[in-house]
Amino acid sequence: MYQLFCDSNCELWHTTVKELGINLIRMPYIVDGEEFLYDMGEATDFKAFFEKMRKGSVPTTAALNEFAYTEYFEPILARGEDIYYITFSHAMSATFNSMQKAIDALKVKYPDREIRFKDSKLISMGSGFVTYYGALKYKEGATMDELDAYLDELIPHVATYFVVDDLTYLYRGGRVSGATKVVGNLLGIKPILHFNDEGKIVNINKAKGFKKAISVLFDYLKTKGTELDQYKIYVLNADNEKEAESFVAQIKEAYPNADIVTQPIGPVIGSHCGPGTVGLIFHSKEK
Q1: What's the pTM?
Q2: Which helix (H) or strand (E) holds 208?
Q3: pLDDT tens string 140-153
Q4: Angle subtended at Cα 277 by Cα 9 and Cα 229, rounded to the nearest 5 degrees
Q5: Which domains does the chain have, with CATH numbers?
Q6: Left (φ > 0), alpha (ψ -120 to 50) or beta: where does 23 sit?
Q7: I need a labelling partner for 280 at 20 to 30 A (CA). Which of 104, 162, 185, 238 fits?
């Protein structure tokens, strides 16, 4: 028997995590010197968080240490169960160096137990998409090998696109240059980003104005989307409900049978993309 794990950077809603019986690894973020662990929206004041960013607060994120991973994993191993952990993209964080050290030490202590992880090569609800459908297979009784095979087939078909409202936050994270930030903000240029096959964020397009950028996202859904009546479509926003609601209405009109899930972007991801961001996740021909 094994236990399924995810981390809060997959951003599945707290009720969904509980309903699916997934063990949650909570990732930290720091605001005005105070550290928090993201609770998947259970008691998070999203509006207050993004309002602080708009007023000049610069939240940061941090990697978990080896001890933290040990605390999550060891109780499961000690009671004789194995672990399967669906992670966010390893290309996005050094936290997985600490995770591997913890796993190596635990394997020495529990040689008969297995700890397996799957890099979703995505973050936010892209990783959540993979985790959600992986958890459904888990609840159906899939073995670790069966879950491996299923996720290896699914991951290359999960598209994650997002548009940011203010280039300042991408600049702080080293995603755009200072000149690009200044010119882009002055001209209203909105970059459109996605995750490549290596699990890295890349800038693939740009549009002048937010509505045009949303139109580009919609075009990606129309041209790349597959099996949209079988898989959920996720629309996320960082304190930008108006644009997100308008986008959802547009999608519903084109795909009336689609199961569209809307929710806020959490503080860990929001620290990097900034307020105003809108994201789109769907099953696609290719990532």
Answers
A1: 0.94
A2: strand 201-208
A3: 999 999 999 999 99
A4: 75
A5: 2-155 (3.40.50.10170), 157-283 (3.30.1180.10)
A6: beta
A7: 185
